[in-house]
Design a protein that fits this description.
Helix content: 40-55%
Largest sheet: 7 strands, mixed
Strand content: 5-15%
Shape: globular
Radius of gyration: 21 Å
Order of helices and strands: EEEHEHHEHEHEHHEHHHHHEHEHHHHHH
Strand order of the largest sheet: 4-5-10-9-6-7-8
Number of helices: 19
Length: about 400
């Protein structure tokens, strides 16, 4: 596997660490990406005229590849497009699944650029015990949750691999495949002789949405258009491969902006699992479900008694309610107040869990209302192969 030394494994299918927490500094060194610093964040604010998204301010998106080049080009008046995706392996999304889409919507609105969203239903069919038909059904269900995030239909194309792969897209896949040896793909992804050939042949499918010529209905004759990919850092191996072959095929290397992992309720040593619905907050959870999960399962850094808590304060390094507020509480001043008061023991765990319940219930209820308004006809419209006449306006 693509291991970061021996104590942690991070690749598109497995994230694990014997130390409990992922060491992101070691991951940056191993993968060869760069840490996203305040200079770049300030530049994003200046170029877009908008405050930085909470995920930028709080270093949820913490690493990048060539983001500075994208901003240089944008400052000169050159446009780019966004590309992100979702592997549809479950009917309902949890909050961790929503993070890249919430951030991508911010980028689309801030830079006023088009977006392609890949639903890798073929990948999930090959990696999970799912039929082709079930993978396709889940792709459409997931598309409804993605559309509910508020993307602009005049700038957004959502596609499923089973439906779209062919033509110019497939030509680029073949070109990429010819550039990547078997030894190279084994070295990047850790495939073994026991893996079926579908897995070994899949990486070009995720690579070529980075190339504008894969979408001739969107970007005809614009093969030099740059691409920016917001994703979690476990997807980096796909795009290291892509960036290696892009210049050999006459394309720009895609740029990336990469996020940390969203922890399970049980703690950063825990893993969110579809088989354990209590490890995460799902967008289908009711307000009562959310309250119960947070109160019962969210790992606390508070002390074992009120007396000790008042004396020693909370351990914010392990406290999941505080970490979740770091993702989803937009008010910097309120978060800093909680950090101070809870860390000093003047605020109790119950108070923090109550505030988190309010914040997450509001997010989930608004998302559920938006999703209920997404019809099959809307999904068809987002997935229709069509020009986007207003995509750069």
């Amino acid at each position: 596997m693509a291991a970061v030394e021996e104590e942690q494994i991070v690749n598109p299918w497995e994230v694990a660490s014997t130390q409990g927490k992922i060491d992101y500094d070691k991951l940056i060194d191993k993968f060869g990406c760069q840490r996203l610093d305040n200079t770049l964040i300030d530049r994003v604010e200046r170029l877009t005229g908008r405050p930085a998204h909470v995920f930028l301010r709080r270093s949820v998106f913490f690493a990048h590849r060539d983001l500075n080049d994208i901003l240089d080009a944008y400052e000169k008046g050159d446009k780019f497009y966004l590309y992100t995706g979702r592997g549809p392996s479950s009917e309902a999304l949890h909050l961790g699944h929503l993070i890249p889409f919430m951030f991508t919507k911010y980028l689309q609105d801030a830079f006023k650029v088009p977006l392609v969203i890949q639903l890798t239903d073929d990948e999930k069919c090959m990696w999970k015990n799912l039929s082709v038909e079930e993978s396709q059904r889940l792709a459409r269900e997931n598309a409804k949750d993605i559309i509910a995030c508020g993307f602009d239909i005049s700038k957004t194309f959502i596609f499923s691999d089973f439906d779209y792969v062919g033509g110019a897209f497939y030509k680029n896949m073949v070109k990429v495949s010819k550039c990547v040896t078997y030894n190279k793909v084994v070295g990047i992804f850790g495939f073994t002789g026991e893996d079926h050939i579908g897995k070994i042949s899949f990486p070009p499918v995720q690579a070529v949405p980075s190339f504008p010529s894969s979408f001739p209905h969107l970007f005809p004759g614009n093969d030099s258009l740059r691409c920016l990919i917001p994703c979690a850092i476990d997807q980096d191996p796909y795009f290291r491969m892509t960036r290696d072959v892009a210049p050999r095929l006459g394309y720009q290397k895609p740029a990336l902006i990469e996020s940390t992992f969203f922890p399970a309720l049980q703690g950063e040593t825990g893993k969110m699992s579809a088989s354990d619905p209590n490890s995460a907050i799902y967008v289908t959870d009711s307000g009562k479900d959310i309250k119960t999960k947070i109160n019962k399962y969210a790992f606390s850094g508070g002390q074992d008694s009120i007396e000790n808590h008042r004396k020693y304060g909370a351990n914010l390094e392990v406290d999941i309610p505080f970490k979740y507020l770091g993702f989803f509480l937009d008010d910097d001043d309120e978060l800093e107040n909680i950090r101070t008061e809870y860390g000093a023991g003047r605020m109790l765990t119950g108070d923090v869990k109550k505030r988190l319940t309010e914040v997450l219930t509001d997010i989930v209820e608004r998302h559920r209302e938006a999703r209920a308004a997404v019809t099959d006809e809307m999904v068809d419209a987002f997935m229709a192969v069509r020009p986007l006449p207003n995509m750069f306006s």
